[in-house]
Amino acid sequence: GEALRADGLKRVGLLGTRFTMEGGFYADRLRERFGLEVLVPEAEDRAAVNDVIYGELVRGVIREESRARYSAVVDGLVDRGARGIVLGCTEIGLLIREHPRVPLYDTTVLHAKAAVKRALG
Fold this sequence. Notes:
12% strand; 4 strands; globular; four-stranded parallel β-sheet; Rossmann fold
């Protein structure tokens, strides 16, 4: 949330497992603590994102078709007004690291940076 706020974002998209996208763990925290509007993909896209995570990424499988599908899902969120995309699952960064229309915020990387910052004081 801090990185999103520092970049001046107010509306973001969220990708992750079905539980992450449909539950409140990430979305509620981003709304309540950082005042962000959080968008998630439509139901069909949420299912596709979830299926790629569990059917491919956790097994180390990276497919160009899945990369294109994720890019299309991100495009849909951008079309709905997202100005940044939160990658709320550790494996998603294996598939997409950047997008031409919007910055991606990989929570794994952000948490690692925050841990180092905290450790160094």
